[in-house]
Structure formats: structure tokens, C-alpha cells
Amino acid sequence: MKTVKKRFVPLVVALGIVIGILIGSFYANHFSGRRLNIINNSNNKISNLLLLVDDQYVDTVNIDSLVEKSLPKILKELDPHSVYIGAKDVNDAMQDLKGSFSGIGVRFNIYKDTVRIVSVIKGGPSEHVGLKAGDRIIAVDGEPYVGKSVSNEETIKKLKGEAGTQVRVKVKRAASAKPLEFKIVRGDVPVPTVDAVYMVNDETGYIRISSFGETTYPEFLSALSQLREQGFKKLILDLRGNLGGYMNTAVQIANEFLPQGRLIVYTKGRKSRREDYRSDGRGSYQHMPVVVLVDESSASASEILAGAFQDNDRGTVIGRRTFGKGLVQVPIEFPDGSMIRLTTARYYTPSGRCVQKPYTPGDEEDYDNDLLLRAEHGEYYSADSIRLHGPKFKTRLGRTVYGGGGIVPDVFVPRDTLGFTSYFKEAYLAGLINSFAYAYVDGNRKVLEKKETLAALVAYLKRQNLVEQFARFAEREGLKRRNRMIAASRKLIENFLMNGIIYDVLDLGAAVEYSNSNDPFMERALEALK
């Protein structure tokens, strides 16, 4: 009998161990909130947290909304340029890079609670149906659209949309007693990124690139061909205000000017091996003198192109220190149509410098305020005030250049503050200059439309005493007249008024050409090309 009992002891012990394990697992799972599982699998913390909130939180929670709000905050902890873009905003975010958008194709201005068409974009849907500059939109899709509810955002929302969809627009036209209604099928509206091309003098061509998108390179080749027909022998390439875009586009443009085998840029990241981008020797303008204009708003692909010219000693960079964005983002789409732009590498100019300015992950305030800090240090007014702490590098011919914060130009151009008074500042910030430009064009459209060239339009406008007309207009709009300040700002005010009127009557290219006619950047560029 004792022998039989002894034979069952191991079985009883084994059963006790098994039961103990089961009981322990039960209590761990049901009373600890799976804490051990979450802690030991940190990669799954976020998904586990969302499951717990969805399953056990005291109130009902919209998990999708919680995720949408959380993703930007997570990416913010990485760097200033890794961002999340919601599905409804992806098309708008990619618009500048695609070189077109879907809509009706008009430039508009809101003046006295009414949407007024400033110009009709050539080749767009509105041009095809007969909409004209000066038309006032009074209804959209059968609903009145005037008054306090009218805003830029709401107007864009009503007029833009998917290609192929229709919108009905009712307008008031000066020459028509009754309102006119147009049915417009939305379509692709071209948005050129090369927005000014002209000959500065008998041998110097000028091209301005506003961003680097899908259509920029063919647009650029077309601009070069246009200048070549006019006999250009030198080039001014304007990248001021260009925030960047596709790196490959900048590489393609640089390739046009460099001999075979020259390094244009290289990229390198933690999970990305170094990749070199070199010229293939097929460029058509390898020996043409080039000047590149930049300022504090020139960023990313603009800095790649300027750096390629500078480090290869291929052209003179003129202006002010560029923005300082040396991080490469890759777009990654989610199944719902949203996307992230994730930084995967840094890019380096041919000399080996990374132009990315310093940043602290998670601290966007200092990064965003960098341009203001430059102003406080006096950097926009004196080259000696430029603060760079990056290492030194050598160009192909041995000149010293610096990393760690943008491209420092070879020739510095200070910001022009002549005529900048509090009167001008108030007028500009209140939008009165743009409002006057539109009102002036709208009231003189028949006369102005006969001035078909820039020279004819400028000659006419110079005789109209625009500054005095503006001062009276601004006073009616509530801006107190200050004669001394108006006299001090006369030239500045006139230039802005002329620029706005020329843009509305002719186009952006003509406005740029006029603006450049008394620009210190252009003066320095022409001096350098001599």
C-alpha cells in the first residue's frame, strides 16, 4: 500500500505545478492589465496602448482620430522635416511638385466681400468657357456667395475639386446688364515652376525657378532654348525664395553645366548607403558663365544646385546665406491615402559639407525662429555677422567654404531697408497695396489692356502718380495719411504698386522683370559676369 502511494507522488506534484502555472497566468492576464507583455515588447507599446484604450477606457474614444493626432507628435520628436500628411491634405501638399492642380483655373482676390477674378490661367477650364478677368463671382452651384462668409479658404474649397467634376459659377460682368452663368468642368491647371525668362541685355539671359517639381527640368530646357534663340552667352539663375522640391530635378539642371564626372551631390544615412550623383558630360552649357542668386528662403534642392556650382567652382553664388535644409525625405503612403515624409538620409555638397542647420529633436521653436535670430544678429545687413560653427571644407580650386548651416554666398548682398517706414509696413500688412492694385486695374481695364508690352505699360503707369492715388485710397480704407513717411517710402510704395499692377495686367514673368530692373542682386550679378 505504501508502495502504491509512493508511485502517485510524482504525478500529484506534476499536477500541482501545472495548476499553479495556470492560476498564475490567469491572475497575470486579468489583474495586471497585461503589463509584463507590454513592457517586454516595447516595439508594440503603441499598438497595445491603443488596444487597451479601445477596450477598457472609461469613455468611448475615436481611435482613428487619436492616431491622426498622435502621428505628427511622434514625428516631431525626430527632426523638423519628418511630417505626417492626412489623406485629405495629400493632394494639396503635392500640388507644387506635380506642376498642376485640379480646379477651374483662375487667380482671384477678395475685395469688399466679393470674389473678383484677377486673371484667367491660360490653358485652364475657365479660359475655355469664357470667364474673364474682372468678373465678380456672386453665386456657386446655385447658392449666393457674397458677404461676410466669403474667405480665401472657402473659395478654394468651392472652386477646386477632382478633375471631371462640374461647378456652376454665376458672375457679374461690367459689360453685361444681367448676371452670366458658366458651367465649368474642373481639370488640370498648369502651375509653371519656371516663372520668368527674359534677356537682361544683349548677351545675358535670366531664368527664375520657384520650386523643383516634376515639370521643372523640361520647363528649364525650354527656357534655355528660348534664350538661345535670342543669342544669350551668360546666365543669371535666380533661386531666391525657392523652398526646394525634388533632388533629382536639381541634379538634372546642374548636369547641364558641368563636365563629365563631376560630383553634384551625395546622400548618406543610417540605413542608406552613400549614393553619388555625378554629371554625365552631356550638358549643353558646360562653358557658359553662370551666376546663381540665393537668399535666406532658398532651401533644400536650391541649396543642392547652388552648392554644386560653388564647390565645383563653376559659377558665382550671390546673395545671402541660404536656409540650411540638408535632410532627405522619402514619401511613404498608408493604405488610407495618408502619407509621411520620413527623413532617411542627409545630402552633402561635392566638398563634403552638410548644409543642414543645427536642430534639437522635439524643439521646433528655435528652429522656426532661426531666420528671426539671423535678423537680430544683423546677418541680413552685414556679411561679418554671419554665424557659422561648422567645419571648413575646400572647393575644387581650394577656396574655403563652411558646413553646418546653409550655403554662404561668394558675394554678399545686404537686405535693402531704404524707405521702410511704419506707414509702408501698415499698408503692406493690411493688404492695402494688393487691394489698390486690383481696384486700379479693375477701374482702368480698357486702357491697361491696350498696353501689350512691359515697356508700354511701365511708361504709362509712371505718368499716373500712383503713390498719391494710393495714399487717398488707403486713407478711405482707414490708414491715416502721413506725408513725411509717404515721401520717405515713395520709391518703395511705387515699386510694389507697379509690381502688383503689372502682374494683374500681364503676368508674373513681366512683374519679375520689372522688379529686377532696380534690384541690387541683379546689379551684383551683372558686375560678376563682366
Keywords:
530 residues, alpha+beta, 21 strands, disordered N terminus
Explain this structure.
The protein is α+β, with helices and mostly antiparallel strands. It is 41% helix and 20% strand. It is built from 21 helices and 21 strands. The strands form 5 sheets. Strands 3, 4, 5, 6, 7 and 8 form a 6-stranded antiparallel β-sheet that branches. Strands 10-11-12-15-16-21 form a 6-stranded mixed β-sheet, sandwiched between helices. Strands 1, 13, 14, 17 and 18 form a 5-stranded antiparallel β-sheet that branches. A hairpin with a 5-residue loop joins strand 19 (392-394) and strand 20 (400-402). The longest helix is centred in the first third of the chain and has 30 residues, at 2-31. The radius of gyration is 31 Å and the shape is globular. The N and C termini lie far apart (117 Å). 31% of the residues are buried.
Gross morphology is globular
Distance between the termini: 117 Å
The helix-and-strand class reads alpha+beta
Q: What kind of sheet is the major sheet?
A: 6 strands, antiparallel
Fraction of residues in β-strands:
15-25%
Annotate the secondary structure layout.
Blueprint: H1 2-31, H2 35-40, H3 45-56, H4 63-76, E1 83-85, H5 90-98, E2 100-103, E3 106-111, E4 114-120, H6 125-129, E5 136-140, E6 143-144, H7 152-159, E7 166-172, E8 180-185, E9 187-190, E10 194-199, E11 204-209, H8 216-229, E12 234-238, H9 247-255, E13 263-268, E14 275-278, E15 290-294, H10 301-311, E16 316-319, E17 327-333, E18 339-348, H11 364-368, H12 370-377, E19 392-394, E20 400-402, E21 411-412, H13 422-429, H14 432-443, H15 445-448, H16 454-462, H17 466-476, H18 483-488, H19 490-505, H20 508-516, H21 520-529
Parallel strand pairs: 11-12, 12-15, 15-16, 16-21
Antiparallel strand pairs: 1-18, 2-9, 3-4, 4-5, 5-6, 5-7, 7-8, 10-11, 13-14, 13-18, 17-18, 19-20
Helix pairs in contact: 9-10, 14-19, 19-20
